[in-house]
Amino acid sequence: MQLRRSASSRAIPAAFVVLMAGSAIYLVTVGGRIWPVVILCLAAAIVPSVARRFQVDIDHDGWSVRIGRFERRLPWDEIAAVVIENRQPGRHLVAKLFLVPVAGAGWDVPERMRASVDGRPAVDLFDLEELHYDKDQLIRELSDLTDDRLDVRIHSLAVPMLSPAARARLNAVPDPVVVDYALRPFPEGVDSVRTLRWLNRRRFALLAVWYLVGILPALVLTVVAARAHELLGVAVLASGLAAGIWGYAQLVAVFAPCRYLVEHRTAVDGAELVINVPTNREDLRSGNVTVLAPGTKRGYGKAWLLANPHPVLLLGDPRTGRLRDYDFLRALADGARSSPAEHDQAAAVQLDQLAEQARSAEPPGTGHAAAAGLWVALTATGRAVAWFVVVCSILAAGGSLVDDSPIVGPALVIIGAVMGLIWIFYTLYRLGSLAATVWRSVTRPAA
């Protein structure tokens, strides 16, 4: 096996480095001094991620690893385990591969690659997303090479294991997987589309607030500060840029988790909640199952939530608060009730109460999903209009300073030009999605 980084993992940082270098050269030609140095320092910080070596070769004799400053031949008799599991270094889970050495192996591992697996020292070798290699093929070939050392702790990745003994040991999924349930979305039909439209509207409102409260005042302050003194303008621009990026990240984080759950298809299989695929399961006996009331978590509207320990399931519609059907909630309650943990049993009691409330819940909404879907596409396309206003505002602010400020004015123009290029591709994508939605609604046969 020869593992290499995917081209995209290098191309995107490399594009930023080239863009920053070009911006610095342009600013030097117009008389800038401080700003080009700042840009070049930022570019230099990205260069290592582009130039870092990544070469991992695996055969029946062991591993040949060349990653950054870590270069070593690792024979199999020095490797106790090869572990693939999810870690959460930030907001999202990342599938990582760890090598656990045998006691006394004496690997000289750089500090940033040191990790721990089940209390044992390990090497954090790479994220699976970095690889230019099919994940299923990777698992199959590792299974053949590692004998009983491979420990895959992600169900969706453990399925390709070829060894029956290894498959039973790693994930206890029977072969073949017997599915006696149907994965269903919630909300369903037209309610699902209306909920997505509801989320789009609220995200658009937050985008407007972000522009009016954050971006527009920051641009005005930057222009005023740059005309008063160049260094003051640079400081205000840098602060405003950082605040704008942070604010947009917070904006996206408000409704993104809710939209993610709306797009789930789920079922209850005994004491497990199945999400999207039969091998992606949440254990209802984990000791962490919690029922969260509406308003407990920001961005989920009127929905009750099932958490384990983070939200994994919508128990109600975020838009209307309508609960799931009685049978589904009772199945969840039965699964949690089978747990010996008091925490899970308390959640089962709450689920029973919600199930009783669901008996008298309003019926699902009626209407044409195609028409509602068209409105979803329109509200999503509306974000392109909002971004057009943002881009024009930045270009206008930069244009007003080009003659008066050798640094801040050109910097704003460059930022606006880059955002304008991104906006063009984003708008084309949104218009294509809108056209596809219109076409589906026109060609859809009458019910």
Automatic annotation (TrEMBL):
<keyword id="KW-0472">Membrane</keyword>
<feature type="transmembrane region" description="Helical">
    <location>
        <begin position="204"/>
        <end position="226"/>
    </location>
</feature>
<feature type="transmembrane region" description="Helical">
    <location>
        <begin position="384"/>
        <end position="402"/>
    </location>
</feature>
<feature type="transmembrane region" description="Helical">
    <location>
        <begin position="408"/>
        <end position="429"/>
    </location>
</feature>
<protein>
    <recommendedName>
        <fullName>PH domain-containing protein</fullName>
    </recommendedName>
</protein>
<keyword id="KW-0812">Transmembrane</keyword>
<feature type="transmembrane region" description="Helical">
    <location>
        <begin position="12"/>
        <end position="28"/>
    </location>
</feature>
<keyword id="KW-1133">Transmembrane helix</keyword>
<feature type="transmembrane region" description="Helical">
    <location>
        <begin position="232"/>
        <end position="256"/>
    </location>
</feature>
<feature type="transmembrane region" description="Helical">
    <location>
        <begin position="34"/>
        <end position="51"/>
    </location>
</feature>
